[in-house]
Amino acid sequence: MNFRRFIITITVALLSVEAISINHDKVEPIPQPEPVTVSEKAAVKFKPELTIGKGTCASFPAVNTAGETSGGLKGSGGTGGCKVSLLGSQVYGRAQWYNDVWAIMYAWYFPKGFWDASPFWRHDWANVVVWVDNPAAENPKVLGISLSKSSDRYNKEVPARLANGNTPVVTHYNRGLNTAALMSSSTSSGESPLDLIMWEQLTDAARASLNDKENFGRSDVPFSDENFPGRLEKAWPF
């Protein structure tokens, strides 16, 4: 085995080691880097505002730079343990062309999953896909948005309701006899936007942990390598 192949083998082995799960309130968010690429600048420009509806958990970071993942919380006890994320939270992003439209997915993690306004399982994700004409344009425009209402179903808005012409405002809320979902508004919430970390800005360890479907129970990471293409297909609004 030559040296280069040895290094690659060791790297893959290290990333394949089962990620460490830590308490949900000990995962530190990753600071938002300065955007450099066209994709990163567009993602920051259209970063949504998230508000939390009554009776649901606040969003929390899912993974840290070391690849340690949130252990989540048992699906019981209402919003106990998840009303506030004292370390701050995170919005995750991933973008690519899809059917000649630029798709930016923004995703949030929650330590409990809700059904009929009650917590039922450990871990949950919600996401919105913002469809943009061209991120490299001088003034890129939002063509529509798709808001998750379950793991792989979306409410679709064309045209999109936006605050100040650029910002999707979404609320994570409980629905009767259904899972928690996102709904949109055209009025700014006044909430400070969370730090955004794009897929390519994550550390190798963090990406490996998000790609490991064993880390988040029944709740799939919507922007993982395995799930991202299928979610865009489900979210397509045109």
UniProtKB/TrEMBL annotation:
Keywords: Secreted, Signal, Virulence. GO terms for cellular component: extracellular region. The keyword Secreted applies. The keyword Signal applies. It is found in: Secreted. Its main location: secreted. Residues 1-19 form the signal peptide. InterPro entries: NPP1. Pfam families: NPP1. Belongs to the Necrosis inducing protein (NPP1) family. This is Necrosis inducing-like protein NPP1 type.
